[in-house]
Amino acid sequence: MRKLSQLLGAGAALLLALSAGAQSTDNYPSKPIRVVVPVVAGGNLDLTTRQLMQGVASQLGQSIVVENRPGASLLLGTQYVAKAPADGYTLLAMSNTFVTAPSLIADAGYDPIKDFTGVGMMSVVPLVVMVNGNSPIKSMADLVALSKSDPSKVSYGSAGGGSSSHFAAAMLFLQMGVNVLHVPYKGNAAALIDVMGGRVTLVIDTMNTSLQHIKGGTLRALAVTSPRRSPALPNVPTVAESGFPGYATAAFIGISAPAGTPPAAVERFSAAMTRAMTPELREKLLADGVEMQSTTPQQFSEYIRQETARFAKVIKEAKITAN
């Protein structure tokens, strides 16, 4: 009888716990949500996150605190969220480095697939293949011809080993079948300056940070890396239509949650993200080359899985290493 009483008591406790868990999800969010940005304030990841989270907070009727936790090439903030309670109240704003770091750094401290679940995409930013505005290279065909006839005359700058600009160029020359000099910098700005100064042949950089230089004539856009032409540069062809079928890459930004976060909380936050992408905000960001993208959590999780595998292959084939 005593054993039966204990079992009944344990069962009641379990039902109570399950009921409390369901109720907490039903009320989600019942307290402020923290979105961790693993970089310093002011960059593309930080600014895009802050702009969209204002709208998400309004949709959910709850405040959202955007917290910068920079350090160790985005690893510190990412590891922090990976170990946070999986309750929907600590989320991660992430970009390309999220999927590439574990293949570049042996002790990255997280697995992008096992330790996280996708919440939703925020935006994608096409990259642009650019040369000096006065360069004799006027098209992708010219770049291919020079690269294949004399690779020693071609070099490309990047924001550093393992950056999105490095991957984009490595993928291009891998498909081209030639090896050219890679010049890594500590950030995109320095790479752009040396291309504009004629010290490096080309750079593949995000559109939002390059558009003003292209429009000003100091840089010439040869192609965009997106699958389709960008509305911000409608007369510039894609890399794919310039003789590289299948080539496509972009700098993406999204939100992920610790693995095990209740699906209802994930779905609710993701739906709020989609509703917050107003036509006004879309138009404002598109003027800078930033294209807002909405996905379901399932679609974004699958995107992360595919990008992780794709970049792991590129890292191996191109022998890419981090700085």
The oligomerization state is single chain
The number of domains: 2
- Briefly note the CATH topology name of the largest domain: D-Maltodextrin-Binding Protein, domain 2
- The count of DSSP E runs of length 2 or more, i.e. the number of strands, is 10
First and last CA, distance: 67 Å
- Element order, helices and strands? HEHEHEHEHEHEHEHEEHHEH
Can you tell me the residue ranges where pLDDT is under 50 for at least 5 consecutive residues? 17-23
Q: Which secondary-structure class do the elements indicate?
A: alpha/beta
Approximate strand percentage: 15-25%
CATH class of the largest domain: Alpha Beta
What would you give as the CATH superfamily of the largest domain? Bordetella uptake gene, domain 1
Shape: globular
Which architecture of the largest domain does the CATH hierarchy give at level 2? Answer: 3-Layer(aba) Sandwich
Mean pLDDT metric: 91
Our Rg estimate from Cα atoms comes to 23 Å
Q: Roughly how much helix do the residues carry, as a percent range?
A: 40-55%
Number of helix segments?
11
What is the makeup of the main sheet? 10 strands, mixed
